[in-house]
Each structure stands twice: as structure tokens, then as C-alpha cells.
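Issue 218. Parser rejects a valid record. Input:
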Amino acid sequence: MNLTLFAFSELTTPRFQWVDIQVPGEPPLATDPVRLGWVPAEQLWTIDRPSALRPDDLVANLALFSLVRSDEPSSSLVQLTEFLRLPEVSQRILAARPRRGEPGVVAVANAHRVMSAFPAERVPAILGVHRSSGYSVYIGFAEAPGAGAELFDLVFRLDGETVAGWKRARLTCTKGIRSGPLAEGRSVDLGNVAPLAEVFSRLPASE
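Output the parser choked on:
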């Protein structure tokens, strides 16, 4: 799953931001993009406490509203409010906007580990703040997705037994693509999706 997330991210922009949600004391798999050294250090954000990504309730940030002009458009106030509710790591990522003319990507690996911190009704606002800052959000989810999955523009399902058998893993678009080889409902071998196959082919031969 993380390798596929990495492939989509790198395909969009080599300057993607990678948020790695880890479990203390549990080392990443040998084939994890971070462990393989594929994620540049300056683009890596490691989270070992799921609570660190919990949206804020704004209590600690209310004083900042005294700095907002009274004639500020309501749309700007909404964006500011939602930005302040983001966890610190998200605010730091969004503060450095993508280069002019380039897409921005925030890829969140192992998002299933923090699913309880992001109820479905909060997802649209969180995505909106990222979009207004020039970023798309890519989520890697290793479990059955909840209702929040349908709030994303594109949704893919990956079915495979092992990393070694990646060529036979099946990739299916379940939302967002109307035509072509990856149209909704069509299942294709990962080995036949050239951009993804190129990334998987970089794996050490033993994998």
C-alpha cells in the first residue's frame, strides 16, 4: 500500500510531502519507502503519536482572532479557522506552499492508525484548507475505508498477497475515472500500469 502511495505521489511531483504515521517500537517493513531511503529527509514528517494529528478545538488559538480585520470576507475567515484547527505538523507543511506552477502533494501513509481522530464530517473542511494552499491530499489506508473515502475525488483499491508478487496485484478505481484503462470498476494488474510498475521495479531483487 505504501509503495503504491509513494508511486502516485512521485508521479505527481518529486517534491511531495510524506507524513509517516508510525507505531512506537514497530519498525517499518523492509519495503517501506522511508526505510528504502526513497523519501528525502526534508520532505519527511514522522508521527509516532496518533494524537499529534488530532484536529484542534481552537481553544488555544482564539486570541488570534483579535488580529483579523472586521471587514475580512467570510470565506477567508472560514479558511483561517480551519487552518488553525489543523494539527501543528499540517500547519507547518501548508506554510511552505508549492513552487509557483507546480502541484503540491501531502501523502499520508498508514492513515488507518489515526482514523478515529478525523470523523467523516471534518474531512471536507480539512481537504478544503489543503486545496486552497495548493496541495492535494493522498491517503494510504491499509484497512477497509470508512465513509470518509467517498469524500475524495479519486479512490483506488489495491488487492495483493505479497510485495514480491506485486505484478499480479490488482488495482481498481472505485471512484473518479470515467473512461480509459483505469475507469471505475475495471481491475488491472499492477504490472500493467507503467508509472507504478517503474517504481516497484526499483525494489531490491530479494524483495
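Fixed in the parser; the record now loads. Confidence is low (pLDDT under 50) at residues 57-69.
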